Amino acid sequence: MADALDAARAALADRPAWLVGGAIRDRVLGRETLDLDVVVDGDPEQAARAIARAAGRAACFALSEEFGAWRVSARDASWQVDVEPLRGGSLESDLALRDFTVNAIAEPLAGGPMIDPLGGLADLAARRLRLASSRAFVDDPLRVLRLARVSVELGLVAEPEALRAARAHAIELVDVSPERVFVELRRIVAAREALRGLELMHELGATAIVLPELEALRGVAQNRFHHADVHDHTLEVLARSIALERFAVGERDDFADTDELDRAIGACRADVAAALAEPLADGMTRGEALRWGALLHDAAKPLTRAVRPFDRRVTFLGHDERGATLAREVLSRLRASERLRAHVAALVRHHLRLGFLVHERQPLPRRIVFAYLRATEPVEVDVTLLSVADRIATRGDRAERAIAAHLDVARAMLGDALRWHADGLAEPLLRGDELGARLGIAPGPRIGALLEELAEAQYAGEIATREQAFAYADGRVRDARRRSE
Q1: Domain limits of the chain?
Q2: First and final CA of the chain: distance in angstroms?
Q3: SS3 289
């Protein structure tokens, strides 16, 4: 960030410019930041291009036509500078147009004392979140979500007046662009205190507007194997997913049973931590995307709930498949990337799959392991972890025994899943054209099916050479011909 600040100072030394908002706030709080917000008294495009030239290899583009903001971003994404025009004719007027007092602190870019007309520094010291003006939510209803996000990211407590105003304006979130909503939601769900953020969203009336699928889970009763309704179960699964991620990197989590987490992933902690830290899409890691899988894994339960007439047992048949479609719809509405949509949908679609394997012979035959990994690829690691969080968060009748059995299967599967994730499927012993020429089969679906059977047999250790592969395939073709005669 020092390079970005130096570039901004060098580029704007001849014009009035101020560092504002988050960078100053975070410095006061002792937090690292990769973003700078700069206000200029003049043309923000000209200022942004000057910063880009001073920084060297940096991208420069318009960020908001409505507000006239421009962004300068390092090519390696190590920093960014947002440049905005001065509003209201003076710096004090500009600061009064901001969301919260803690974000309405400025400092001359060239250096000098902080400018704090609204008392933001005192509010930071008191860990207090206060509106910069009574028009804060009128000017931008997205700030209702931002109140929840800033509260949980910075550990600030919103003043009652701010909470009342946010509730009054939450309905106006319907008019905010989905892209902007998703930015705030993404950061709330990624926050260390994500559950508190979601709770605050509900208290403000925001969840029903921006994530109604989560709100719809409240009060949906489950069967006797669950101790909570679908909503509270979902939040527990999210909490357990976060605990798994923290456990993997050696952090303590008061919500978690360390023995259970150790039983599930103990031997693989370092590899799990590395997998979850991988960048995925939309600025998220795989670990942060796993949180969205937890949040949406049972989203279709209200749509699939039924009560069996003969024993009055509650069922949710098909909620995994229907939920995958719903998860994709939610993320599409929020304008998430296709990669994130597909990833989360796959988590939802397959979150029950490992649980079905608990009833198979243990240890699992290699062909069954292959079938699981093949079906869940490329979320084989992530969905295994989601199943652990889901199982630990289900504590109704006979829970202790069921949890132990599930964790044992998950621990065994996780090692295979991590290896699959790292190395992929082994190089095939035969190509399709070789197989077709040898067996006299024309290119088509049959060749594809045979290659898949060979991959399964190879993974199971039943074949290891080309000749064994030819012999295996020849036997399968002969068997098929005999059955058709």
Answers
A1: 1-127, 134-210, 221-423, 432-484
A2: 74
A3: helix
pLDDT tens string for the chain (485 positions)?
A: 567 888 889 989 888 999 998 899 999 999 988 889 999 998 999 999 999 888 887 889 998 766 789 999 888 878 899 999 999 999 999 999 999 999 999 999 988 999 999 999 999 999 999 999 999 999 999 999 999 999 999 999 999 999 999 999 999 999 999 999 999 999 999 999 999 999 999 999 999 999 999 999 999 999 888 898 999 999 999 999 999 999 999 987 776 778 899 999 988 999 999 999 999 999 999 999 999 999 999 999 999 999 999 888 999 999 999 999 999 999 999 999 999 999 999 999 999 999 999 999 999 999 999 999 999 999 999 999 999 999 999 988 888 999 999 999 999 999 999 999 999 989 999 999 999 988 888 889 999 999 999 999 999 999 999 999 999 998 888 887 788 76
Q: Helices (DSSP H) in 205-337: which residue ranges?
A: 207-210, 212-215, 230-248, 258-265, 269-276, 286-296, 301-304, 319-333
pTM: 0.93
Measured from the Cβ of residue 379, the count of other Cβ atoms closer than 10 Å reads 26
DSSP of 2-35: HHHHHHHHHHTTTS-EEEETHHHHHHHHT---SE
Beta strands 157-158; 80-85: pairing state: unpaired
Could you tell me the two tokens for 182? Answer: 């998703």
Instruction: List, in order, residues 6 or more apart from 251 with CB less than 8 Å away.
Output: none
Q: Top-level CATH class of 134-210?
A: mainly alpha
CA 20 to CA 44: how far, in whole Å?
A: 15
Q: Which CATH number is associated with domain 1-127? A: 3.30.460.10
In the DSSP assignment, the letter for residue 312 is: -
Quote the Cα angle for 386-360-479, to 5°. Answer: 115
Query: What is the DSSP track for 336-399?
Result: --HHHHHHHHHHHHHTTHHHHHTTS-SSPPHHHHHHHHHHHTTSHHHHHHHHHHHHHT--STTH
